[in-house]
Automatic annotation (TrEMBL):
Keyword Transmembrane helix: yes
Keywords of this entry: Membrane, Transmembrane, Transmembrane helix
Gene: WBGene00279185
Keyword Chloroplast found: no
Name this protein carries in UniProt: G protein-coupled receptor
Pfam family, one: 7TM_GPCR_Str
Entries under SUPFAM superfamilies matching the protein: Family A G protein-coupled receptor-like
Transmembrane segments: 40-58, 82-102, 122-144, 198-225, 245-270, 290-309
PANTHER family, sorted: SERPENTINE RECEPTOR, CLASS J
Origin species: Pristionchus pacificus (Parasitic nematode worm)
């Protein structure tokens, strides 16, 4: 097992812990009137928690050989498992835009914010990520199966066995961007063929979905930020509160935040893995780092919310302070035992 595999598992465990803590804080320590935003945070935390568990169970690995890009499950020998995994990690793209839409409406169009409390609108919003998941899944299961690409599959198998020291079944999805000449010309056995139009179209669709998500989130973020600055009617306290919530949201794209969590940990790995093999660009560190980065996303997504919302920071401080206090009490009792503890130990020793 590679060092990156151990790091991925550790990050999945940490992601489960941080998102569980976030759900607890949302449930028990939300003093600020967040309104429907509280429910959005709950949905984000539940999705991130699910993504951590899914990543740990599927154990995805990236293999890039020549013009071939493949994602392989280290556990399941079924292409549907990898297709489901890829489609689930497309959900954060949509959730980011819902997040920004809420912030934008809250500042610029407050009369529309009540829609987030209506069942029909919530159902409509839920259909958007479900639709995106379905499209992503169909693209994977129908256009990335590797049917008729025995040579490409053989290269992927050999590279996986060389790298991980074990064989694989059929739990892969792959894109072989260039059809070898021997696919149509007998007697030739080289990989200098021509571009496969189906894979080029699939790549274009993937890139289009990600680009639209980034542009929409950035646009809503800029409009919201400008709206906060221009509304002189807002009190200084409320203005600072809205800015903090905006910065919590913009940490999920690449705007006004030093962490750039999804942009660094999701968008960049996706774009590099999908596009670099197509253009024959160097990809040496990418296969090992891709899912190491992606597994960071649910963890740091929760950490950002916990640190930027004051109620949750206080809750963490109280929880941490309580644990430290109990630990110090235990140590002081063991070093300087009280009469009560001595009596208790005497009874135990004579029992």
């Amino acid at each position: 097992m590679l060092d990156s595999d151990y790091a991925e598992k550790a990050q999945c465990v940490a992601g489960v812990v941080t998102n569980s803590v976030l759900l607890y804080c949302i449930r028990c320590h939300t003093r600020t009137p967040l309104g429907a935003y509280k429910h959005l945070l709950t949905i984000f935390a539940v999705v991130d928690l699910f993504l951590c568990i899914l990543h740990a169970f599927v154990e995805p690995k990236v293999i890039i050989v020549d013009h071939i890009f493949a994602v392989i499950s280290g556990v399941f020998d079924d292409q549907r498992a990898m297709s489901i995994y890829a489609s689930c990690f497309a959900v954060p793209f949509t959730l980011m835009n819902i997040h920004f839409l809420y912030r934008y409406w809250r500042i610029q169009k407050p009369h529309l914010i009540e829609l987030f409390s209506k069942a029909s609108f919530i159902f409509f919003l839920a259909c958007i990520p479900i639709t995106e998941m379905s499209v992503w899944y169909l693209l994977c299961i129908f256009f990335m199966t590797g049917d008729g690409r025995k040579e490409a599959i053989g290269l992927v198998r050999a590279e996986f066995e060389k790298k991980h020291g074990r064989s694989i079944g059929e739990g892969w999805i792959l894109m072989d961007h260039w059809v070898p000449n021997n696919h149509y010309e007998k007697g030739r056995n080289d990989r200098n063929g021509y571009e496969d139009p189906w894979y080029a179209l699939t790549l274009l669709l993937f890139d289009t979905v990600m680009l639209i998500s980034i542009l929409l989130a950035t646009t809503l973020g800029v409009l919201t930020f400008n709206g906060i600055r221009s509304q002189i009617k807002l009190s200084s306290i409320k203005r600072n509160f809205e800015l903090k919530l905006l910065f919590a949201a913009t940490a999920q794209v690449q705007f006004f935040s030093k962490t750039l969590v999804p942009f660094v940990f999701v968008y960049i790995p996706y774009v590099c893995c999908l596009n670099l093999p197509f253009f024959s660009l160097p990809v040496v560190p990418i296969p090992d780092l891709t899912f190491l980065f992606i597994s960071c996303f649910p963890l740091w997504d929760a950490v950002i919310v916990l640190l930027l919302i004051r109620d949750y920071r206080r809750a963490l401080w109280e929880i941490g302070g309580g644990m430290i206090g109990r630990l110090r009490l235990t140590r002081s009792t063991s070093v300087n035992p009280t009469p009560e503890s001595i009596a208790t130990m005497t009874i135990i020793n004579h029992a």
